[in-house]
Design goal:
Its main location: membrane. By secondary structure, this protein is an alpha+beta fold. The chain folds into two domains: 433 residues, Growth Hormone, Chain: A (Up-down Bundle); 49 residues. It is built from 21 helices and four strands.
């Protein structure tokens, strides 16, 4: 690659990656604040139901991503890559900002969750059009034989977006008091996105159209009906289905298990302090992110198939041992309580509800706080537990989450190049976007809600290892995908159209 072409590709990478990273930030800020959002936009009398409702709303954004892929993919194959993903950027940014402006459930009742759901659906539509455009745009600028390396930079943006969302939340929490953050400060990360979107829009506005697409348009070889050619043509449909069931379905569940489910699991099942979880997850993501580039580069040398399949197989084999170790590392049942430091306070609210606070300290430095509320007007109670773990346990969890992120980088790093190489230029945006967003949006996006439901159900049923039940979903989906991928995917990339 010449010096000039290197400079040109870096400009493309920077502009595409920044915009895509911001869209992921916008999309994931909702998930990063799921625990807080559940108390703001849903009825507070049943915390478990409110949290599950929040996860369902979070998942709704994923469910509509395939529709966004079809709508914006068609526009991208007819009008062009550049203008289409500029539109998705503005749609995403506007929706995210408005979520931060919606009044709480206490103020406007059921209109609050309804408005959140509508804006969440718009976010999903926008992201459905963004990723395919960015990946296609970069791949069509990249030199032959280096598609995996250059497109892997786009692959980092999802994790970097999640990382930045966690860092913005932590910064906001540190600047504001806990009361202010709970009252209105949680809205700040949503508002911040509008500034980033504006900057990214100005950068993307000055980009040129993809040279491959521009050439096809000049020669009159673009598609008049990308949807029909993508899914009505049996030959091309075969590759769409192979991309879905042999790659993106498994990649989707591995991605969301290693990052979002890990975060949800530590906060809601292990009851670790939310800020601690955000911090340790951020470190694990920071350490793991360069491996997206490594595995993208390696896929140019050895092929995409075996790297992606190895990531799935490792996840299938090691998820249960990893999560068992995570749970046991911080479980207070394995720690020694300092009895003389245990304290209990009881207070009565103006509604005559009784709040009992129990504080415990353990010999390894772990602290445990449980607040149990007995409601006067309802014959029921609810408990909230917050565990602050010691430094040694933190680093153990960082390592265990990093291993999961490593699985993510193996399945996700090469997949953009794998997908764009499967389809011809005139229908590439549409053809690659749908399997990607069904695999990630449907199979992956539903994972937090489905797995949390399985864990909750197993806990109520009294299973001793209830916390592992949520893993059956990603393990089964990844196993099916692994078998199909190993049998039918060609590692020699014979379908390469670039």
């Amino acid at each position: 690659m010449s010096k000039t072409s290197t400079k040109g590709i870096w400009k493309v990478i920077s502009a595409s990656s920044m915009g895509t990273m911001i869209e992921w930030y916008d999309f994931y800020i909702f998930g990063s604040l799921a625990v807080v959002i559940s108390t703001k936009f849903f009825p507070s009398d049943n915390p478990t139901a409110a949290f599950l409702s929040t996860l369902a709303t979070f998942a709704a954004g994923f469910v509509v991503r395939p529709f966004g892929a079809l709508f914006f993919g068609r526009l991208g194959d007819i009008i062009g890559r550049k203008y289409t993903f500029m539109a998705t950027l503005l749609l995403m940014g506007g929706s995210t900002f408005l979520i931060g402006c919606i009044p709480s459930y206490e103020t406007i009742g059921f209109m609050a969750p309804l408005l959140v759901l509508i804006l969440r659906l718009l976010q999903g539509l926008a992201l459905g059009g963004e990723y395919g455009g960015a990946a296609t745009y970069v791949a069509e600028h990249a030199p032959v034989g280096q598609k995996g390396y250059w497109t892997s930079w786009i692959q980092t943006t999802a994790t970097v977006g999640l990382f930045i969302s966690l860092m913005v939340i932590l910064a906001t929490k540190n600047i504001l008091t806990p009361t202010d953050f709970d009252s209105w400060g949680w809205r700040v990360p949503f508002w911040v996105s509008i500034v980033m979107v504006g900057v990214s829009y100005l950068i993307r506005k000055n980009m040129d159209e993809s040279p491959v697409f521009a050439k096809a348009k000049k020669e009159g070889t673009t598609s008049a009906n990308p949807l029909k050619e993508s899914f009505g043509n049996r030959y091309n449909l075969k590759f769409v289905l192979l991309a879905l069931f042999g790659a993106t379905m498994g990649q989707g569940v591995v991605w969301y298990t290693g990052q979002f489910y890990a975060m949800s699991f530590m906060k809601t099942v292990m009851n670790i302090d939310s800020s601690q979880v955000d911090g340790l997850l951020g470190i694990a993501l920071l350490i793991g992110t360069p491996f997206f580039i490594f595995f993208g580069w390696l896929s140019d040398k050895v092929g995409r198939k075996y790297i992606m399949m190895s990531g799935m197989l490792l996840a299938i084999l090691f998820y249960r041992p990893i999560y068992k170790m995570m749970y046991n590392t911080t479980s207070v049942s394995y720690k020694t309580e300092i009895v003389e430091k245990t304290s209990q306070t009881i207070e009565t609210t103006k509604n005559n509800d009784t709040i009992t606070s129990i504080s415990k300290t353990y010999t390894d430095g772990t602290t445990y706080i449980e607040k149990k509320t007995d409601f006067a007007d309802k014959k029921e109670s609810q408990s909230n537990i917050s565990i602050n773990i010691n430094s040694s346990d933190e680093w153990t969890l960082i390592f265990l989450v990093f291993i999961q992120v490593l699985f993510v980088t193996m399945v996700y790093g090469p997949i953009a190049a794998f997908l764009v190489e499967m389809f011809p230029t005139k229908i590439r945006y549409t053809s690659m976007s749908l399997p990607y967003h069904v695999g990630n949006g449907i199979f992956g996006g539903l994972l937090p809600a489905i797995s949390t439901y399985f864990v909750t159900h197993a806990k109520y049923a009294g299973k001793p290892d209830f916390y592992l039940d949520g893993l059956w979903y990603p393990i089964i989906i990844a196993s099916i995908c692994f078998v199909i991928g190993m049998i039918y995917i060609d590692n020699k990339n014979k379908t390469n159209h670039l």
